Sequence to fold (104 residues):
Amino acid sequence: MAPQYDWCSPQGRQTITIIVKKLIPEWKNGLYPSQHTLVARILDGQNILCCMATGGGKSALFAVPILILREIVRNRGLYPDLPIRELPQGIVITPTKGLAANIV
Fold:
């Protein structure tokens, strides 16, 4: 069955919020608005270019989409109306070993 909604739709954005709150309860306020918009675009398969200051939440832009897709693959029946990729993967390129250690 084809997806009814995309991730940038109100239903898709609501699902992102629900999954982030479920998987990352420490984030009491969820994603920042700019992160939310970019995560939705990433999940819809759009390319993004993002420039944020240190501490602005760039790491969430590669980690959260992977977490969301893994959640949906594990619990497909809970999220039938949104598009997914069965084997979510991400590649993270860091310029320094120190930054790579911080991300892990």
